[in-house]
Amino acid sequence: MAVLYRKYRPQTFAEVLGQEPIVQTLKNAIAHKTPAHAYLFTGTRGVGKTTVARLVAKAINCLKGKNGEACLTCNICVSVAGGTFLDMVEIDAASNTGVENVRELIEHVKFQPTQGAYKVFIIDEVHMLSKQAFNALLKTLEEPPAHVIFILATTEIHKVPITIISRTQRFDFASLSQEIIAEHLRAVLKKEKQKLADELVEMIAIQAAGSARDALSLLDKVLALGETLSANDAKILLGITDFETHAELISLISSRDTANIPAYFDRLLEQGTDFTVFNKDFLEFLRKALVIKITGNNVLSGLTTEQSMAMTDLVESISVNQLVKLVRLFLKAYKDATTAVSPELPMLLASVEAAFVEPAVSVAPIKAAPAPVVVATIQDSPEQPKASEAVSEIVVAAVEAPVMNTIISEVQGDASALDLTYEQVISFWPTVIQKIKEVNSPLSTLVKNSPVESVGQGVITLQVKYRFHKEHLESTKHNALLSSIIEEVSGKRPRLVIIVRAEDVPLNTAEALGSVLQVFGGELVE
What we know:
The chain has about 525 residues and is α/β, with parallel strands linked by helices. It folds into 4 domains: about 5-170, 3-Layer(aba) Sandwich (Rossmann fold); about 180-240, Helicase, Ruva Protein, domain 3 (Orthogonal Bundle); about 245-355, Zinc Finger, Delta Prime, domain 3; about 370-525, DnaA, N-terminal domain (GMP Synthetase, Chain A, domain 3), CATH 3.30.300. The protein is about 55% helix and about 10% strand. The protein contains 24 helices and 10 strands. Strands 2-3-4-1-5 form a 5-stranded parallel beta sheet, with helices on one face. Strands 7-8-9 form a 3-stranded mixed beta sheet, sandwiched between helices. The protein is globular, with a radius of gyration of 30 Å. The N and C termini lie far apart (about 60 Å).
């Protein structure tokens, strides 16, 4: 029996999933006999790029086509379906990367079609062509003979030269939603006269990650186990870790139970867990947790009612800031997985590090009023050319701390500003940025790229990367605008403090930092 993704490959434009605008545009061009000389289809795997390219070749040459659709019954439609149509040439650029392959293709371009009105050349994974091959293709792609149509397909558009892109009509294929894939799977099951629990259908749709082809391949695997397949069997087969497993890891991290984290990963290793899949699923779990924490909305796709309630309870004790840090740690673990000496190691390290996460660098409260600071000029050496600049930044950061304490003291009596929390600010911050954009677009971009560091006692602290960004936001004009918009959105008027990010201080200046802290009577909190 044919594998499902081949058996159910769309044979008409109407059967293509989730690409309606692209399909309609192509049908109109074919119906009016005004096709472009070259198309570029881009998108993730399994979303229909090559399938639509073949449908274009069939419809543009169909003898009885109507409204841009092929009839499926004429000699040309039958030969395209059977893979014997001589005027549709498919080339896999991954295995034909050289300039000699392109030159051979260009020679074929000169010949007239033998069966249809157009000769259609489909170059799959076009980004794999060499630089010389692209150069050889340029001229022909720009001015091909009237009887030739080029269709280029790629999953990595950023690797295609702009000179190629500019000579084509580009279409970006969207990833398919879980709902569309699940509906498609149910239709296939009905045609195959097979039954599968709806929970398993949803599970496959989630794992497919927007790819119809991957979804049908996974369905093939699941159906091979027979009708007695349990949800647990399917999870093992597909490499899926369930909600409870993810929730357990979050609990271990939030309770700082580092003693039991290694045993947790040992257990997963014994079960044969695919840690690449597990990491990806855990990141999706964290994404949902973050959405629930920020919006308060727990009605999310892929969560049952019980799971939504459990997720809401789970995020109660975790701040938005902690969730963001978790996402960053496990994103890094996902990237490190390809070079790790053992499959579970990146996630194990990320979990242990997450359990010990503290604010990056902070200065303890000042014990006494600081004496005037005199900073000696440091002579730059060849080994440390930026030492003086580094110490200068450290001094600025240290001075900001007492200034910030002073500001906090000044707003102690301002009851209207003291009841804002970090979570509240994070939740309305996108609205603040949008309202700034309506007045000053460049300023909104700067604020968007300046994360909220902390909120407390009537002060919102923003982090910036450079000193001139700090000065820009602290100007009278911009500070007044920001404050008024925050007040408009939240009903409060907290003070704004802008600090330069601590992580921008070079590591080799730690000694100098210690000296400055000593002068100010503070201490470094790890």
